[in-house]
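Meet the record:
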Amino acid sequence: MSRRCELTGVGPMVGHNVSHSNIKTKRRFLPALSPATLQSDALGQSFRLRISNAALRTLDFRGGLDTFLVKARDEQLSPRALKIKRQLKAKLAEAKAAA
């Protein structure tokens, strides 16, 4: 399983451990990923995604999964999240046509 957030695309970063004597050794900064079950209001479904804790806070700030996915760029999203976004856009277009 990749260490990449399915919504924001955040992955491992590379840096240095710096000792007191200023010796630098390579290290990896891994994102804080956690599995989360997210509810889509428009689709009436819940989805289980592996997202970063920062993305979870962003979801709460923006008002949920639907508004986050509509505004998100396709390059950042995982294939599973892209599939959810396509379903969501189809559902919203269908609702707009019916109104």
The two ends are 42 Å apart (CA to CA). The beta strands are 13-18, 24-29, 33-40, 45-52.
